[in-house]
């Protein structure tokens, strides 16, 4: 017998987006308070597969940990001369925009809404946070384009947000200033926002990158970020909208000669003095690490430092620094680590609690934000296996304590029919089992593999400037971007201690302030993020830093090659077209991983003069 | 009494472009066989100034050393998405083309013709050697545009040449192949070329970059460069046209791990086996150094290695690697050194003799080619002082043994009325003398200054990849471009010896093959081009390599600062607008020179660990 599905009817306990699933006496029941809740319940049944209709199940109540689970699209309306249609996009063009206009056919947008609902994502920003001239008009003249997208996504419980230009009132000719304390400016935003809500009654709100990397902001008027954010929040409040105000603010014209300035400190230094000044519909959107989406960073100290501010954590689903969707890199384990990090020590709440608003005496949570990895590519994400990151983002936003391997397992079952669906009884043997096992081998630790063949011990940014793909150890070393490793013939790493360095460790509460400060206690994987050490420094596993660099780089490439061969064996179990696509991408991943290995190893051999203890060839 | 000017009337001894100047009994006489010769004679009088009408002068016969004195414009018709309107251009847009079409107003082209005649240049290529789709059409559909330019330049004795796409017959749909031995292809080129000469009877010929950096060429058909060049030469021969075939051919997808491959060897290895196979209207156009217009390179060994081939030497007037017309860098001393270099030792002929066809048993000369530094900037060359390079190029092509300081002196007199013209009796005292003296101080050794604050001891390519401006010591170190310095903690430089290196030294005839091979005899300024040495290696002046790096970088910056202050003192002596432009550019030059100094010094300090003996601050 099929499932019985229906709304619970007025029972507030299930919650706006929650649902209850049960199977009792041969009947599967899904209850919810809202259509969206019901939809989520339906997708839950899909995940369960046959199992939903097997043995009796006690009632399970599901609801999302975080209210806001948002994907930001860095999509441009006009093709940007350098950044293209999608900034940092690796999956073709935008699903929304094409050559300066809304796409004629929005069928794909509707399908995207369904995909998002299946993952649990409930909000989307439809344009790049770097808001150029044409995109500024989305707020006014081109608002109907945004409304058209909202119409397609609404049935799937997904609300639309808009990235706005802080200087829009001036840029659009409405006022002479964009000063957030100016009455005309306030009136302009109020009027414009009211018109937005006329067109899109369930509009989500604004996303703003202000006073960052050249974008306009309140500083031009002698105002601060709270003034700026509150201006927009005031305009949105009557309609229930929110402002996502990005904390990605730093000096991108730093003097590389000056070792006292530390980009890692910037967000904390800028924002923590403002804690308590933001309106309650302002969400401070904080990147998960203090620098910029490197494969290994500590968790941003800002997350634990603003108890009276709603904080959202921003993750990068698009693989700017993690292989640009040409490399397999399943990011859920990294995100899971971030969400599980407990800034106040093991007894305190974790990052997931902060973003869920689940901290005693803390502000409401700001939820989780991901930078989307989706484009108009037939596989949505360029690399077919990168779809797993999209799925995992939504699932972790819904249930942050989920096990990344279990999420991957769900995704495999939903994606590859040959894996036998998600029925625990199916697919474990024979071809289905082989496929499932192989995909776990290829993907489970692929982020660890990526880390091994790229940048060692948390030091970050050894990529080619500009496009950020492939190695260039010194590429950012003598630039104004604040991203250095300070390697010399004796050692490598950034001294961020209070004792002798930039003092960044002091931005953490105990115990982490002490753990990171201590050379002995600092976790190996973050050693070079926090300390400058000689190449002979011995890690906790007994290896020296230099030997660790060599070993991990050889190991990382071997792992890629094993994964590549493992994938080749899956011919026939996976449809031909995606199999061929991934096979081609593996050839590129292997080439690039070898390039990383050889450049990083050659660089450090030339600098340190220490030969590989195992005598392998280093160019 | 004014000058008497007239043609010599049938007296062949003066030559096509030559002239005779004399002053006898109060009459100044200019004689020539042709209108162009007369024009050159007239400009000679302008250079002489008042002196032309003073004391009696015996008859002087002037004629150009080289028949072909050509400027190549790397101008695109369509604005290239990366390279812009003028590839490697630093003086605004093209004077010929704008936004995909010929400019409406060609007044500037006419003025350019006059400028070229005043310098002695008699040929111009009107489009980029990288020939894209629209530019391919200049040969056919857009030929009238080329003819319009030719009409403007003809009165000044300047012939127009065209860069062509070797695959043009296929690209333009004329034939199914571009195979140089195919009869249809030969017929296509013959027909197309005949039509070119119908439109432009004095058309100069074709310039071709083939099988180089991705451009098409004869290799695709299993043919060699001689086959390719002869194909075009055959089509041009009936009309007296020539093919400039560029020797800039190398593997730009080299593996940086492979130290046996040497880009410096490439042109010689590709072309010397073909010596004797080129038709006599083929000119092999060879860059002056074996790599690519670095501020210090040895002279290309190809120049001395092809006695049965007409060779032209290509210089880069546009300052791609020498400050991009934001830095003062008077290039004539470098060019003079190249032209004066005697490949077979002091008793043999020099490079100037080779390009003039003045070598016993050698081929006719191919002349001198410069890549133009001119654009639509009001000062023609962006940096007002870069005009001196344009002038010096023409003057050296006419008379290669000229003294660069004397050429500069001429240019100062012609350019700055305040310097008192070129009358030897004027301008030596007072303001005029001050201006002249200051400009010599600023410019005479500015190329040496540039070399000092940039790349040490001939090793080359420490620039930012892509745009090539400013330092990036490792920017090209791990790339496929074949441009490496191999610095490690112990030493730096490229071993190009026969004994232990790439064997490049063997491409020179004696004595240079021996001089460059020998660590003891190799000139210091080319040490790292030919040898990999420890940082402690002692140069001929007693300094170590590492200390030389520090010293020259500090000195170079100090020299820029002195030149900057010297220029500031000239306010009032130079018109305000160019004075302000140069003052602003000096601020940028100083900033950039300091960046070079600090990056290069920091890089080598970090690598070598050797402190500056004079204790100066290195970041």
TrEMBL record, chains A, B:
Look up the signal peptide feature and give its range: none
Q: Which keywords annotate this record? A: Hydrolase
InterPro entries registered for this protein in UniProt: A-glucoronidase_C_sf, GH, Glyco_hydro_67_aGlcAse, Glyco_hydro_67_C, Glyco_hydro_67_cat, Hex-like_dom2
**UniProt keyword Hydrolase present:** yes
Q: Where is the Glycosyl hydrolase family 67 C-terminal domain?
A: 381-616
Residue ranges of domain Glycosyl hydrolase family 67 catalytic in the record: 61-380
Keyword set includes Acetylation:
no
Specify one Pfam family.
Glyco_hydro_67M
Identify this protein by name: Alpha-glucuronidase
What is the species listed in this Swiss-Prot or TrEMBL entry? Answer: Microbispora triticiradicis
Q: Taxonomy-wise, where does this protein's organism fall, top ranks first?
A: Bacteria, Bacillati, Actinomycetota, Actinomycetes, Streptosporangiales
């Amino acid at each position: 017998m099929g499932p019985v599905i229906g709304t619970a009817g007025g029972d507030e306990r299930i919650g706006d987006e929650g649902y209850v699933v049960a199977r009792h006496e041969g009947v599967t029941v899904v209850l919810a308070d809202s259509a969206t809740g019901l939809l989520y319940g339906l997708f839950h049944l899909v995940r369960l597969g046959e199992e939903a209709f097997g043995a009796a199940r006690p009632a399970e109540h599901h609801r999302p940990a975080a209210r806001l689970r948002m994907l930001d699209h860095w999509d441009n309306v006009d093709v940007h001369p350098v950044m293209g249609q999608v900034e940092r996009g690796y999956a073709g063009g935008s699903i929304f925009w094409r050559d300066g206009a809304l796409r004629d056919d929005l069928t794909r947008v509707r399908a995207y809404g369904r995909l998002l609902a299946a993952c649990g994502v409930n909000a989307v920003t439809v344009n790049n946070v770097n808001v150029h001239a044409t995109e500024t008009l989305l707020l006014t003249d081109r608002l109907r384009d945004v409304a058209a997208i909202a119409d397609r996504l609404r049935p799937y419980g997904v609300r639309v947000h808009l990235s706005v230009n802080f200087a829009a009132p001036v840029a659009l000719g409405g006022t002479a200033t964009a000063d957030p304390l100016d009455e005309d400016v306030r009136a302009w935003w109020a009027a414009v926002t009211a018109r937005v809500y006329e067109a899109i009654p369930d509009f989500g709100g604004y996303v703003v990158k202000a006073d960052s990397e050249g974008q306009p902001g309140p500083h031009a008027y002698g105002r601060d970020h709270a003034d700026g954010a509150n201006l927009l929040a005031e305009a949105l409040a009557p309609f229930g909208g929110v402002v996502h105000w990005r904390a990605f603010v730093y000096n991108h014209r730093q003097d590389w000669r000056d070792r006292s300035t530390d980009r890692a400190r910037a967000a904390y230094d800028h924002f923590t003095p403002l804690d308590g000044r933001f309106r309650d519909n302002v969400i401070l959107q904080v990147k998960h690490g203090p620098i910029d989406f490197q494969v290994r960073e500590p968790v941003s100290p800002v997350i634990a430092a603003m108890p009276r501010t709603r904080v959202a954590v921003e993750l990068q689903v698009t693989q700017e620094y993690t292989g640009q969707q040409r490399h397999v890199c399943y990011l859920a384990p990294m995100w899971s680590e971030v969400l599980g990090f407990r800034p106040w020590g093991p007894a305190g709440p974790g990052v997931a609690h902060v973003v869920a608003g689940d901290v005693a005496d803390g502000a409401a949570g700001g939820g989780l934000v991901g930078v989307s990895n989706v484009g108009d590519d037939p596989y949505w994400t360029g690399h077919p296996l990168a779809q797993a990151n999209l799925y995992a983002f939504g699932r972790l936003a819904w249930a942050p304590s989920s096990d990344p391997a279990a999420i991957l397992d769900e995704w495999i079952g939903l994606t590859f029919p040959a894996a036998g669906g998600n029925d625990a009884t199916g697919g474990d043997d024979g071809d289905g089992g082989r496929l499932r096992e192989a995909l776990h081998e290829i993907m489970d630790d692929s982020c660890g593999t990526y880390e091994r063949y790229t940048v060692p011990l948390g030091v970050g940014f050894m990529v080619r400037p500009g496009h950020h793909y492939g190695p260039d150890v010194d590429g950012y070393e003598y630039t104004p971007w604040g991203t250095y490793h300070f390697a010399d013939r004796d050692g490598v790493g950034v001294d961020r201690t209070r004792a002798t360095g930039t003092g960044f460790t002091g931005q953490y509460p105990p115990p982490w302030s002490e753990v990171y400060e201590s050379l002995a206690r600092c976790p190996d994987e973050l050693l070079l993020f926090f300390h400058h050490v000689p190449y002979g420094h011995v890690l906790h596993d007994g290896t020296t830093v230099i030997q660790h660099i060599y070993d991990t780089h050889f190991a990382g490439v071997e792992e890629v090659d094993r994964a590549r061969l493992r994938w080749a064996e899956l011919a026939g179990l996976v449809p031909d077209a995606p199999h061929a696509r991934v096979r081609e991408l593996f050839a590129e991943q292997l080439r690039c991983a070898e390039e990383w290995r050889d450049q990083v190893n050659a660089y450090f051999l030339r600098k340190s003069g220490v030969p590989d203890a195992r005598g392998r060839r280093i160019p």
